[in-house]
Amino acid sequence: MRTIALAGLVLLWTAWAAAIPGPAAAPPPQPATVAPPSDLAAGDTPNDAGQSISLTWRPSPDEALGVEGYEILRAESAEGPYAKVGYVPSGFGSFDDQAVPRDGRDFFYRVRAVGAGIAPSEVAAAGPARSSQQWYNAARTNALVGTLLFTLIVIYFIQGARRGRHLFIRRIAGLAAVEEAVGRATEMGKPILFCPGMDPVTSISTLAALNILGQVAKKAAEYDTPLVVPNRDPIVYTVAEAIVKEAYAEIGRPDAYNHDSVFYLTDSQMGYTSGVNGIMARERPATNFFMGYFYAESLVLAETGAATGAIQIAGTDSITQLPFFITACDYTLMGEELYAASAYLGKQPMLIGTLKAQDWSKALVGLLLVAGAALALSGPGLRQFVLRLLSID
Amino acid sequence: MKKNVPLAIVLVLGVLFAVQYFVPSRLSQRLYDTTLEWDIIISIPALAIAVDSLVRHHVVRIRQRRKGWGYSWVYLGAAAVMTAIGFSGGISEGGLFMNLFTFALAPMQSTMFAILAFYMTSAAYRAFRARSPEATVLLLSAFVVMLGLIPVGAALWRGLPGLSEWMMQVPNMASKRGITFGIGLGSAATILKIILGLERSWLGGSE
Questions:
Q1: Which of A19, A112, B71, B106 has fewest C-beta within 10 Å?
Q2: Which CATH number fits the domain that encloses residue A249?
Q3: pLDDT digit string (tens) for B149-169?
Q4: Domain spans of chain B?
């Protein structure tokens, strides 16, 4: 009986304890609300191939309260439904929607600030906006004007050369030494080594190097001096082979062309370097030409060549490698001299005309620099104007 | 005919792609992308021709017993082994082919790269001999710049790091930009010469 009474008491107590409300649980923290981004503007991305709309907005003034970024939403009507098309981190106020489904159709955009500890902000809305492709890149107008101006200057000097006008070209020591270098190899009965750079045929410096190869091959054919041309790029190899073959044919000695003189080595940078070093160490060429674009291997090549006692003529437009060539080679064609080499060696008036055009264009660039610097120093407005004028997209 | 056809192709494509640079439309972009694909397609047969040239070169060396002809056997053997392994076992990660690449070829390339440090020392010795007024200026400039970059420089004279920075940012940068202008105009002139057919050395002759 006492047990039953005790059990009843326990039950009553349990029911009473359950009925009494406990201490109130802390309500979950309300996520902070932040001000939305403002001044959202949407418009066609200029100077592009279409299907892109550019958005700009003023970031939320409450970014410091936990805004991590902005969600960009797109819809085909102002009412929606809106789908997320992009996200940019906080601190940015622009986005290019490059996945617009179709040109010429209206699209509406919304941007809202989001973050882990905040409620998504109210949205900023913009639209309608339409994308379209352009047929002229207005941001490159300055490049177009410069190109046309330069072309006109080149044509003017070519016409002058055609009419027989004398055009003075200063002596370029490295190019004046080509004849001597080929002659030396001939006297010593040793080959000439010509490296057409490390870049593919699409590089302008490689084209310039191949132009020089044509001239050097002609001299080698004339003097009957062996020529060794190891290549790194398969297409450069095929072009170099054709150039050397044609040069021998032009001199009237196609039979003297050695099919083994132009060959492919490897496309591995250091493999090529090792291969050329081996050729220099074994065959001891009397003259080494390093023309075109070079990378870290420039010094390894030039120092090995210097150790073999060869006359070395280098030419590159790789500014970082120029000091190495200047140090280790007898003559170095710096930058534009590489491009001038073919005209200088070929001595064709029309080609020399283009060199004159280069010189005058350089003078024009110099004048522009002085004028631009003067304008930029005149005030911040003019400075912006000059920057806009000279910037190319 | 043999030269006129390539010249005509260069003229047409040269002008076309000069115009393409200023036209951002889809058609223009597609033309550019297609050309890049052609470039890859053309390079494949060119690679076959190139490998043929390399093999012939080494075979000739062995036949003529030229100096160092034994190395040609090394090349031919290595090329044959790598080709056989590549075709039979594939080139996947962890395979024999990739292991040979990772543990044999890559270290050899790194070794070649590493010897650059020794060449740099010998070149620096040659460059920094004050044999002429220009070389003396170079020597002094290099001395100031190098000293300014290490803590000892600042300990010797507080202004040295600033002077070193100024030398890099002002006279050095000015000369680099001067060269860059020349390169820009030179490359533009070379392109024009080739497009207009004035420069024909790349065809092997001037006629």
A1: A19
A2: 3.40.50.1220
A3: 999 988 999 899 999 999 999
A4: 1-66, 118-195
